[in-house]
Design goal:
Layout lengths: L1 E3 L2 E3 L18 E9 L8 E8 L4 E11 L6 E8 L5 E11 L5 E12 L4 E8 L8 E9 L1
């Protein structure tokens, strides 16, 4: 960021967000996840990565960056209650379509409480049938 007459300028591609409901007494923590997407040479590829929460978090959003993506690829984020069968908590569901730049920001103005023991599942859906493997970087914005 650069200083312009006392005002900060946001970097290109970054949207300004007003945090209305940051939980009192908490600090913003960015938790990164990275996974490679395995592609079958003959069919579309789907890959998932699970993050089991060991403590309750206040989630505000996620910033994703994808390398080697194909137009039409998307990421599904779901919060899952473990068990047999697993149960998706649809309140937390989000589909993120990969932009041509590969970077997407999904930031809410408030936070969502996600209890310990739940699973945050990221599923990457690739429409490519060949080529280099996509690599997904996700930075979750949480308050602790």
């Amino acid at each position: 960021m650069s200083d312009l007459s006392g005002k900060k300028r946001l970097e290109d591609g970054v949207s300004q967000v007003t945090i209305e409901d940051a939980p009192e007494g908490t600090n913003l923590v960015v938790v990164g996840r990275r996974f490679e997407v395995t592609l079958d040479s003959d069919t579309n590829g789907d890959t998932k990565d699970d993050w089991t929460l060991t403590e309750q978090i206040e989630m505000q959003g996620v910033v994703t960056e994808v390398a080697n993506h194909t137009d039409g690829d998307y990421i599904e984020l779901r919060v899952i209650m473990p068990g047999d069968p697993e149960v998706e908590i649809s309140y937390y569901a989000q589909t993120i379509y990969v932009k041509p730049s590969g970077q997407t920001n999904v930031i809410a103005t408030g936070t969502a409480t996600v209890p310990a023991g739940l699973i945050i599942r990221a599923s990457y859906h690739s429409v490519a049938t060949s080529g280099p493997q996509p690599i997904v970087y996700m930075d979750f914005r949480i308050w602790k």
